[in-house]
Amino acid sequence: MTVRGKKNKGHGMMMMAIGMKLAMLIPLAIGALFLLAGKALIISKIALVLALIITIKKLLASKHESHESHGWSSGGGGGHGGWDRRSLDEQNAAQDLAYTAYKQ
Question: Concatenated DSSP letters for 22-81?
C-alpha cells in the first residue's frame, strides 16, 4: 500500500460527512421557505380585507353625499377642453375681455 492510497480514503469519508450534513439542511431550508410563503399569504389576506373595508366605506359614504362629480373630465365632448383653434380663440377673447375691463 502506498501513502497516496490512504489519503484518498480519508477524503472520501470527509466528503460523505459533508454531503450528509448538506442533505440534512435541505428539509430545514424547505421548511423556512414554507414559513416565509405562509407569512406572505397572511399579509396578502390582511391587505385584501383592508381594501374591501375601504371600498365598502367609500360606497356607503357615496350614498349619503350628493351626486356631484369630483373627478377629471375627459375633455372629449360638448366643446369642453381640447386644443383646437376655436378653443384657443375663445380663450384669447376671454383674456382680452378681462384685460380691457382691467384697463378702464
Answer: HHHHHHHHHHHHHHHHHHHHHHHHHHHHHHHHHHHHHHHHHHHS-----S-----STT-S
For residue 45, give the amino acid letter.
K
> 55 pLDDT exceeds 90?
yes
Give the domain ranges of the chain: 1-63
CB atoms within 10 A of CB 26: 9
Residue length of the chain: 104
**Nearest CA among 61, 82, 63, 85 for reference residue 73:** 82
The rounded distance, in Å, linking the Cα atoms of 43 and 35 is 13
Whether the model pTM is above 0.85: no
Q: Tens digits of per-residue pLDDT, 56-87?
A: 999 998 877 655 555 565 555 555 555 666 66
